[in-house]
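Module 6 notes. Inverse folding takes a fixed backbone as the condition and produces residue identities as the prediction. Think of it as a translation problem where the source language is geometry and the target language is the twenty amino acids. Below is one complete input and output pair. Work through it position by position during the lab.
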């Protein structure tokens, strides 16, 4: 059953964006969530323009999105975490141009509750399992496989709950074809909850915890837990197996740290700051967003600070042991909620505030004269590296998507004397803020342009077939 629903002006802000081969072709698409709308975007590499292919109202709040590809598969599925109390796996069907529900499994109550999973999603990089987590306590792991007809199958949920624990972020750790492992940023608040003085809360430290899915015994174990020095806000999974050293990058205040199990020592590097920065020098700097680009021969990360500066992060290894973290200033773009690096050489930036952009990566930043900052460089405790921001050099803007988010103020008035009022809105934040005028009605789309040899003075329509009906208004 489909109920009729009409939205006059759809949401333009993007809360999360993912990319993958959702249609099964070689070209990558982008799937974005706009609150309660799921949208598939495709970009034309010839023109550089990005255009919507499908937009679906989900009648709920999309809290998390992740692409998922089975081992050896050529098509990405979409795992959705929402306020429905369900895990939903969607498949894009190009022939019907729809998102088809492959699985919809209920595990809890509806609503954005802190104890019901849906806020965090993580997938095993080899396409074997997915973890869906709540803000507090509950985490569920589903094993995904294929049946004899090559259809996606899903297991019963395996619990990885931990009482009195708040979760900040979850990622899937790339460890090749060993048991799927998930890394979580957690904090144990049991002691702080029972201490009325607040001392325990001030001394509480975050934990980096590894959860391992034992495929043989079919259950999840809490494999490893370690206290962190700085308060971290999110994790980046490092390629593993035959493609990299595995492990995670921990993004915390003023520092980025590489951690891995085994003999690997921690590698810690300060986050560079702007030279002659107008912000408070005592204010901490954090990474807010990241994107990973991986090929058969190399990989790198693009991480963005809360000021919009993007750094290219590479790891130096010696026989699968990481010896050095290298950061290099890449470019400055609007602060984003999500970034997607496409294999065609484009970077999609879903901005937190204002319009969204599609950039072409003109250079990888290897020969731009910018200094390279390394964890091996000696620095005093508390000191950091300095760099100077500049206009775009490695990125080229090729397309822009309008966004009204956030609307700070709105007035309705007929200042243009058009007999119908206009909406005057203040949008954006800081130097990218704008005044926009919204009018009722639909824009005229230009479908084709043809140059004429002379100066025309009239235009007529003609019949496609000789037996087509002719109407009096066929002459303009």
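Target side of the pair, the amino acids:
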């Amino acid at each position: 059953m489909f109920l009729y629903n009409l939205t006059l002006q759809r949401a333009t802000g993007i809360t999360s964006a993912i990319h993958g081969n959702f249609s099964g072709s070689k070209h990558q698409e982008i799937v974005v969530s706009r609150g309660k709308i799921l949208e598939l975007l495709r970009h034309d590499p010839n023109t550089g323009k990005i255009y919507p292919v499908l937009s679906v109202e989900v009648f709920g709040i999309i809290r998390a999105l992740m692409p998922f590809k089975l081992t050896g598969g050529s098509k990405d599925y979409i795992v959705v975490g929402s306020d429905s109390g369900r895990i939903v796996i969607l498949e894009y069907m190009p022939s019907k141009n729809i998102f088809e529900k492959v699985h919809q499994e209920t595990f809890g109550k509806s609503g954005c509750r802190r104890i019901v999973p849906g806020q965090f999603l993580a997938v095993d990089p080899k396409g074997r399992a997915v973890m869906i987590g709540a803000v507090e306590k509950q985490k569920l792991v589903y094993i995904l496989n294929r049946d004899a007809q090559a259809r996606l199958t899903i297991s019963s949920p395996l619990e990885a709950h931990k009482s009195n624990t708040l979760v900040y972020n979850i990622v899937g750790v790339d460890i090749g074809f060993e048991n799927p492992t998930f890394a979580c940023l957690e904090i144990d608040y049991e002691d702080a909850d029972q201490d009325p003085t607040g001392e325990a809360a001030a001394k509480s430290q975050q934990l980096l915890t590894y959860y391992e899915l034992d495929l043989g015994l079919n259950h999840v174990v809490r494999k490893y837990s370690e206290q962190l020095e700085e308060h971290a806000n999110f994790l980046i999974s490092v390629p593993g197996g035959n493609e990299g050293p595995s492990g995670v990058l921990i993004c915390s205040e003023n520092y980025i740290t590489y951690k891995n199990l085994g003999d690997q020592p921690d590698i810690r590097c300060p986050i560079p700051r702007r030279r002659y920065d107008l912000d408070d020098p005592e204010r901490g700097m954090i990474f807010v967003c990241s994107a990973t680009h991986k090929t058969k021969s190399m990989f790198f990360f693009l991480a963005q600070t809360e000021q919009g500066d993007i750094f290219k992060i590479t790891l130096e290894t010696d026989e699968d042991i990481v010896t050095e973290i290298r950061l290099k200033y890449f470019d400055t773009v609007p602060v984003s909620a999500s970034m997607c690096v496409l294999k065609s050489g484009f970077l999609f930036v879903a901005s937190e505030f204002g319009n969204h952009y599609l950039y072409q990566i003109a250079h990888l930043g290897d020969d731009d004269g910018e200094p390279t900052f390394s964890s091996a460089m000696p620095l005093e405790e508390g000191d950091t590296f300095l760099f100077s921001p500049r206009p775009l050099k490695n990125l080229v803007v090729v397309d822009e998507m309008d966004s009204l988010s956030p609307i700070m103020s709105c007035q309705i008035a007929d200042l243009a004397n058009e007999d119908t009022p206009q909406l005057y809105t203040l949008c954006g934040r800081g130097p990218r803020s704008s005044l926009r005028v919204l009018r009722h009605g639909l824009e005229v789309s230009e479908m084709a342009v043809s140059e004429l040899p002379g100066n025309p003075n009239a235009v007529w329509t003609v019949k496609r077939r000789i037996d087509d009906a002719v109407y009096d208004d066929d002459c303009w």
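Reference fact for the lab report: Helices lie at 190-193, 199-203.
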